[in-house]
Specification:
The complex is a heterodimer. By secondary structure, chain A is mainly α. Helices cover 71% and strands 0% of the residues of chain A. Chain A has one domain: Arp2/3 complex 21 kDa subunit ARPC3. In chain A, helix 1 packs antiparallel against helix 2 and helix 5 crosses helix 6. Chain B is an alpha+beta fold. Chain B has one domain. In chain B, the strands form two sheets. In chain B, strands 1-2-5-4-3-12 form a six-stranded antiparallel β-barrel. In chain B, strands 6-7-8-11-10-9 form a six-stranded antiparallel β-barrel. Classes of the chains: A mainly alpha, B alpha+beta.
Chain lengths: 171, 327
């Protein structure tokens, strides 16, 4: 059962990471790259709860940090995404969730991810963070996340219902 | 039994018919042929008129017979159309790839670099602030760490990590990247550092008194053994200079030749040239063309001097020149 839950979380994350670096980051959109991984993490948190959300965040960060072409410190994204996954699952009560609320929480999560990785990277001494472009990156990331949310969140919910109904939070 | 009148009429008609037959068989321009042509001229006209009037109906009959096939025809044509459109799109992208490869080949030939072409398949997300890309060639293709990566415009970056079938390339503009650069046509060298921004690099001259003007081009100075940077690769053009000559922190802003937002075909320099190609790889500039022609003899003399310093054995140069077409 644990294995199946892991797969229901892990396989979509893997697909999301591949889409993110081979398609979304190559679109040349202004500002940030649409953060499909964070959206997926929040979708897991909303569908299954804080623990699964945290696990998804950890896994997503590990995937993006380890797979090429990443050159960031491995674990930075894991920490940030883990926190986001947990918090998203913890503070949102699925029973009184609205579509707008769902979009807002995904957008906030994307903003938190952009800011969080910039802060953690800076603390770890990365020379790369450009603080004057952080606001634009954060803002655009929020926007792209909000646009992706209505597609990804219901899909994750449907997957959970089909493949791991025992952890699905009834909405 | 037929009446008498009837019998007479029949007989007349039969005789007339036979007469016609005989007359016709006899041939020649008898009265029959002229009558026939007169009649057929009239009936012909009538037929044409009638055909025009009835054409909607007759063609409707035609349409009716193909009615059942039309749906099939439409879908067939649509499929055909789609295929053609795809072919057109693909030919455009094929042409773009061919152009990119041509450019790469031009640079590789001009600088006598042996390059291995590869294609960018993934780009790191912008929010990581790391300018790294994945290319579709790895250790199985002979890629090793710290090899130079170029394209038809100039220096792209260097190989950071190598897997079996893919490699990670850190781009020139990444904030962690630093390249030894030389001002084209002079001997002034300095350090070109990435800023993390797509359109600017920092260039710090080692000699603060050196002359530098906006519009100067930079090429790589070249690392020992050609790794991580092979010599003579175009880097970019000076667009801004802060500080005056003599100041300790004299930094120029350099716009890279390579547009990283449109990276597709790149080449990994698997073997650097045996001699520094100097400025030969830089694209020719119109205003400098005449100047270069004048200074050609001068340059040649300079190159000879440089060769004498770096290469004791002249036969090595000959070997290098024959290898230019190898890749």
């Amino acid at each position: 059962m644990i294995v199946r839950q892991g797969l229901v979380i892990g396989v979509p994350l893997l697909i999301a990471s591949i889409i993110q670096v081979t398609l979304l980051s190559r679109l040349g959109l202004p500002g940030a790259t649409p953060d499909l991984l964070v959206v997926t993490v929040v979708a897991v948190a909303l569908a299954m709860g804080p623990v699964q959300g945290a696990f998804a965040g950890f896994l997503a960060g590990a995937i993006i940090d380890v797979s090429p072409p990443s050159d960031t410190v491995v674990g930075v994204n894991s920490i940030v995404y883990l926190a986001i996954g947990f918090v998203a699952g913890y503070i949102v009560d699925n029973r009184d969730r609205t579509v707008l609320g769902m979009i807002a929480i995904v957008g906030l999560a994307c903003a938190a991810a952009s800011l969080g990785t910039a802060v953690v990277d800076s603390i770890l001494g990365s020379p790369r963070v450009l603080w004057d472009s952080v606001p634009l990156i954060t803002l655009t990331s929020t926007l792209y996340g909000a646009l992706l949310a209505p597609a990804v969140v219901p899909l994750m919910e449907w997957l959970t219902k089909k493949l791991a109904p025992e952890v699905l939070l009834e909405g | 039994m037929l009446s008498r009148r009837t019998r007479i009429a029949l007989a007349v008609l039969v005789v007339a018919s036979l007469t016609f037959v005989i007359l016709d068989l006899r041939g020649g321009d008898g009265p029959l042929s002229s009558a026939r042509s007169a009649v057929s001229a009239v009936t012909g006209l009538l037929q044409r008129g009638a055909a025009t009037v009835f054409s909607p109906v007759t063609s409707a009959g035609d349409w009716w017979t193909t009615w059942r096939n039309q749906a099939g025809q439409i879908s067939e044509l649509r499929a055909q159309n789609e295929e053609l459109e795809r072919a057109v799109r693909e030919s455009a992208s094929d042409r773009a790839r061919a152009d990119a490869l041509d450019e790469l080949l031009r640079v590789a030939t001009a600088g006598r670099y042996r390059v291995l072409p590869a294609e960018v398949i993934a780009v790191g997300p912008a929010q990581d602030y790391a300018w790294t890309v994945t290319i579709d060639a790895g250790s199985l293709d002979g890629i090793e760490r710290e090899m130079t990566v170029i394209n038809g415009q100039g220096l792209v970056g260097r190989v950071l990590k190598v897997n079996q079938t893919t490699s990670t390339v850190v781009l020139l503009i990444d904030a962690s990247s630093a390249v030894g650069g030389r001002v084209a046509t002079t001997e002034e060298i300095g350090i070109v550092a990435g800023t993390g921004r797509q359109d600017s690099l920092d260039f710090q001259l080692l000699d603060p008194l050196a002359e530098l003007v906006i519009g100067d081009s930079l090429v790589t100075f070249g690392s020992r053994g050609g790794r991580p940077y092979a010599p003579g690769i175009p880097i970019g053009e000076v667009v801004d200079i802060t500080g005056t000559a003599g100041q300790l922190t004299r930094v120029a802003t350099v716009e890279p030749f390579v547009d990283v937002s449109q990276l597709s075909i790149v080449g990994v320099v698997v073997r650097p040239p045996r001699e520094d190609p100097r400025d030969s790889v830089l694209p020719p500039r119109e205003e400098q063309q005449a100047e270069n022609d004048d200074a050609a003899n001068d340059d040649a003399a300079n190159d000879d001097a440089a060769n004498d310093e770096t290469n004791d054995d002249e036969t090595v140069d000959d070997g290098a020149s024959t290898e230019a077409d190898a890749p």
